[in-house]
Give the backbone structure.
Amino acid sequence: MSTTIYNSGEAHRINWDFVSRLFIGLLFIISGIMKVMHFEEIVLSLNDIQISPSLSPIILTFAILIEIVVATLYIKGGKWKDANGYTLIAFVAIVTVIMHNNFGDPAQATQYPVKCGGAPTSSARLVRILLITSGRSCCFARAVA
């Protein structure tokens, strides 16, 4: 989907598919960079939720790689953009279950903790956005909303 904008007689097309992938991907990339910057603090918070101290750095490194690499590939597009989008959806779902499993706590129900480098948005909202922009799962996205 694109929009044509006329400026000084020249036509410019805006690729809204790319723009949406860019903004969604940047959420994950910025979160991954924040995790790199606060690596030790996040490892300690993983230890607080009963993850083995020897596995915490490995799990966090894997999460950082998913956030940065997969989100970059998602922004780039190509024939794997849907697979990358679904990988990000699965990542959000898994992290939500592991890190935010106390759904009675209003703070966990609405946003990620800032100390974990998460974007201040509802994980359900992010999943809906990813599903809607993928273009293939709009029916499921409406059901989640």
Confidence is low (pLDDT under 50) at residues 111-121, 136-145. The chain is about 65% helix and 10% strand. The longest strand covers residues 2-7. The first helix runs from residue 16 to 37.
